[in-house]
Specification:
It is a single chain. By secondary structure, the protein is an alpha/beta fold. It is built from eight helices and eight strands, in the order E-H-E-E-H-E-H-E-H-E-E-H-E-H-H-H. The strands form two sheets. Strands 2-3-1-4 form a four-stranded mixed sheet, with no helix packed on it. Strands 5, 6, 7 and 8 form a four-stranded mixed sheet that branches. The longest helix is centred in the middle third of the chain and has 16 residues. It starts with a strand and ends with a helix.
Amino acid sequence: RRTGILDTDIFGPSIPTLLSLVGESPRLSEQNRLLPLSNYGVKSMSMGYLVGEEAPVVWRGLMVMKALQQLLWEVEWGGLDVLVMDLPPGTGDTQLTITQQVVLDGAIVVSTPQDVALKDAVKGVEMMRKVNVPLLGMIQNMSVFRCPKCNESTHIFGTEGVAQACKKHDVPFLGDIPLHASICDDADKGKPTVVAEPESDRAKAFITIAEGVAKKIEL
């Protein structure tokens, strides 16, 4: 599938690091639109490409919204089958702007299992309902840690918290992502787990969830 990802987190963009594109800058098309950067077969655009890696974005609301508008409407994606928008946590201006200006096939809410994280995740669920965005489901991140020495499983952040929230709020449960040092290490190195370790159980967890979402949006 022809896939793009738009990093809408203006203050803390992470896509350049995750895709090993730190330090790269997008060129402009003949129509003076930003051209996405690509790696691993995925096109991407992020505020992280437009400011220095260590440069803080110290902007007030109007400047943030202006930057978001540029990312939304001034990027020449070309032909895509799907565009994933990576939103920052919360239910603020960024989320509201996107849901009001973009026709979305659906939203996915990601949370760790513990209550303190789920409270914010559930607010995200309810926001999407209020703005009539279909809820594709929730993902439980850092669900279980398996000790590499003794192979014993430990639920560091609690068990089944997201699955229980899904039942309570009538939201599909899309799956679990384990807590594993390699996932963090792969991300820091700019090599997604599905690329770095495609046969690992953790990569298969990502792939299974992606395949399930693809079916939901009829890809």
